[in-house]
Specification:
By secondary structure, the chain is an alpha/beta fold. It has helices at 6-12, 31-50, 63-69, 91-108, 120-131, 156-159, 178-188, 206-215, 228-232, 268-282, 290-325, 353-362, 391-395, 400-415, 420-431, and strands spanning 15-19, 23-27, 52-53, 80-81, 84-85, 112-114, 137-140, 163-166, 169-170, 175-176, 192-195, 219-223, 246-250, 261-265, 329-330, 342-346, 365-366, 368-370, 385-389, 459-461. The longest helix is centred in the middle third of the chain and has 36 residues, at 290-325. The protein folds into three domains: 11-50, no CATH class; 64-297, Aspartate Aminotransferase, domain 2, CATH 3.40.640.10; 305-431, Aspartate Aminotransferase, domain 1 (Alpha-Beta Complex). Helices cover 41% and strands 15% of the residues.
């Protein structure tokens, strides 16, 4: 077979695009292109309008941030530092990158921000590479306490040849065991200690372990990816104020920006080393189009971040309490269930994490299966738990009463045994009231010139 010629394609394939304002328009396009547009349209409709999205590592940008994201900058290169590039044509990119660093520095109350890492994992790789050489040692929060794979020998740390040593875990408090951890740090004398994680209900003991790390001339790295929005919203302690030497983070979880990363520190020496390592070791071009969207999100968080972070935590606590009330085994009951955006549930009695996550997806409730502190590592494909995050639905305006409704949906599917496809109808109807992003500025993009607008969800009919 050969690809259709332009004349064959125009005769053979037909797409109807329904524009709410102008009516239906017939477009003659190749079938493969129709498939691409259909997949995108169906995904957008499903996830943005019809699902309760509870993945703890995701969020939704505002229309303003999305408009700033889809720009000509996505086609451009800007290797090097602002105003010291290896390419011409970057004068506006430079100003945006400087502004992102300034805004994030203000939000984090930190002197130096490096925004070029394109993900949290790349931020971690850069920090780890600067702080230790192959064969040297790093002490990390235990996997049971939520350590991200990039912190471990199975991920970035191992790829860099740095030895992975875990801190002891306190099962009762669902956290690092402080006293035992201090002893490990003093005995091992690592080059650095890593705190923060991806299953993260309660703050790690930064102050105590930073003091121990500094006593053996080690640095403390804090992976703030999941809680960055809570930190800048002043509802989670700022690790830099408690002794952390460096923050690594992504920019798209509780901080509701585009996918990307950053590194922040008050040490000029560390900042210079990080900046020399991120390029050319880990990125060449750093996906420039995310920078304006990150700046827009930072400004939104400057004005609305405290209210947003506060409601996230209120919602997480309420959802945990309601699920517990319905008989679910929600972890951390004796500790108040959670202090973050996350809720973790032992779902083994309902068939395990893999089965439950799939059942909920069939009802348009999106969560992820997750290892629990007492699961063996080989249970990763079918762990005992699920991880829930409320930050995205909070951004769409949901509050405590809506968490009650969501908990009831869980009950209907898992306790009452109602067919997921029946609950899905209820979920879709429920979501109709929550399609507008909150905690942003009231700006009608239709008033902007076309250059500043982007198409959102297109309605395709076949």
């Amino acid at each position: 077979m050969h690809p259709p010629t332009q004349s064959e394609a125009s005769e053979s394939y037909l797409l109807i695009y329904t524009n709410p304002s102008t009516g239906a328009t017939a477009l003659k396009l190749p079938g493969e292109l129709i498939d691409v547009l259909r997949y995108v349209a169906e995904h957008n409709r499903w996830r943005k309008l019809e699902c309760i999205n509870l993945i703890a590592s995701e969020n939704a940008m505002s229309p303003l941030a999305e408009a700033a994201y889809l720009t000509d900058m996505m086609h451009r290169y800007a290797e090097g530092k602002p105003r010291k590039r290896y390419y011409q044509g970057t004068k506006y990119v430079d100003e945006i990158e400087i502004l992102v660093s300034k805004l994030m520095g203000e939000l984090l109350e930190v002197q130096f921000v490096e925004p070029r890492p394109i993900s949290g994992t790349i931020a971690n790789a850069t920090a780890f590479r600067v702080l230790a050489a192959p064969g040297e040692k790093a002490v990390i929060a235990p996997v049971q306490a939520g350590a991200h794979v990039s912190h471990t020998k199975f991920g970035t740390l191992g790829a860099l040849g740095i030895e992975h040593i875990e801190l002891p875990y306190d099962q009762e408090n669902m956290n690092v065991d402080v006293d035992k951890a201090i002893k490990v740090i003093e005995e091992v004398r690592p080059r650095f200690v890593v705190l923060g994680g991806s299953v993260y209900l309660f703050p790690h003991p930064v102050k105590e372990l930073a003091e121990a790390a500094h006593s053996v001339d080690a640095k403390l790295v804090y992976d703030a990816a999941h809680v960055l929005g809570l930190i800048v919203g002043k509802r989670w302690r700022n690790p830099l104020k408690h002794g952390a030497d460096i923050i690594t983070s992504s920019t798209h979880k509780t901080f509701p920006g585009p996918q990307g990363g950053l590194i922040a520190t008050n040490s000029e020496d560390l900042y210079k080393k990080v900046s020399k390592a991120v390029f050319p070791l880990f990125v060449s071009n750093h996906h420039l189009h995310r920078l304006p969207a990150t700046a827009v999100t930072a400004i939104e968080m400057k004005y609305f971040g405290e209210a947003y972070a506060d409601q996230i935590i209120r919602n997480a606590k309420r959802l945990a309490e309601k699920l517990h009330e319905y008989g679910f085994k929600v972890l951390g009951e004796h500790l108040g269930f959670t202090q973050s955006h996350q809720v973790v549930v032992d779902i083994k009695n309902f068939g395990g994490g893999a089965k439950v996550a799939k059942l909920l997806e069939e009802a348009n409730i999106i969560v992820n299966k997750n290892l629990l502190p007492y699961d063996p590592p080989d249970a990763i494909k079918d762990p005992s738990g699920i991880r829930i995050g409320v930050q995205e639905m909070t951004r769409y305006g949901m509050k405590e009463s809506e968490m009650d409704v969501i908990a009831e949906f869980f009950k209907k599917v898992l306790v009452d045994g109602k067919k997921p496809e029946e609950v899905r109808k209820e979920v879709i109807e429920f979501r109709k009231n929550y399609t507008e992003v909150k905690y942003t500025f009231d700006a009608d993009l239709n008033l902007f010139e076309a250059l500043f607008r982007i198409p959102m969800i297109i309605d395709l009919r076949f």
